[in-house]
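Field log, afternoon session.

UNIT: design team B
ACTIVITY: writing a sequence onto a fixed backbone
BACKBONE:
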């Protein structure tokens, strides 16, 4: 699966290259230790080396590779890296949800349910990209609507990595156990209802349960190529 072109509207060539390489690294197509050549990538994408350098710098900043002269070495996402990504996401969602407990969340709940509706349609049509995007949008809406500038800045620094991990995990889930995606939809709907009612216990239980399930799914799918390189 290539990076969805519909997600690249308005992106620079460097950003487009970064998105495709990021997905290849997360999916294990580009394994840890692989040497990436600027010249080869430029040839593959039919471009000059300048946007390739831009892309490699972005991915190096995310810790996915290490820059070398005229190229880079793939580092990938180790289990520890993925655990840290989940830790930060969970901390952010715990924080922002606290801001909603004693608020009128009618508008946000309407927005979240609209996204869940779109997830249901995507599941019906087995549309991996749309399901992943709406799942991501659900969590991003929680962060954006909280109105905390520094939290949003932290989220934005990880958003492309988070989105790509979700895409790769959803692809694997649709291929191997698509019924789990229906469970995901149900849990998101339960969360939206709890948010509407201001039920703090249910909200925090959802976050803990969600990230426990997501860790297991990613460990079984996205991280499997990494485990194979270490066995």
């Amino acid at each position: 699966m290539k990076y969805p072109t519909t997600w690249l509207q308005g992106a620079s060539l460097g950003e487009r290259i970064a998105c495709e390489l990021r997905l290849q690294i997360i999916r294990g197509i580009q394994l840890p230790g692989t040497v990436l050549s600027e010249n080869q990538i430029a040839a593959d994408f039919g471009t000059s080396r300048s946007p390739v350098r831009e892309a490699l710098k972005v991915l190096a900043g995310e810790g996915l590779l290490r820059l070398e002269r005229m190229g880079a070495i793939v580092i990938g996402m180790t289990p520890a890296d993925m655990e840290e990504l989940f830790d930060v996401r969970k901390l952010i969602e715990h924080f922002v949800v606290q801001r909603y407990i004693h608020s009128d969340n009618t508008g946000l709940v309407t927005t979240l349910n609209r996204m869940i509706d779109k997830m249901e349609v995507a599941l019906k049509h087995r549309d991996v990209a749309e399901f992943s995007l709406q799942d991501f949008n659900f969590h991003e809406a929680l962060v954006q609507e909280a109105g905390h500038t520094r939290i949003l800045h932290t989220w934005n620094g990880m958003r492309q990595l988070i989105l790509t991990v979700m895409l790769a995990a959803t692809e694997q889930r649709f291929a191997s156990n698509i019924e789990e995606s229906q469970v995901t939809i149900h849990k998101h709907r339960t969360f939206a209802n709890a948010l509407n009612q201001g039920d703090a216990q249910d909200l925090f239980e959802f976050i803990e349960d969600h990230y426990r399930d997501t860790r297991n799914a990613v460990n079984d799918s996205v991280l499997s190529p990494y485990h194979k390189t270490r066995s």
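LOG NOTE: Residues 149-176 form the longest helix (28 residues).
NEXT ACTIVITY: expression trials, pending approval
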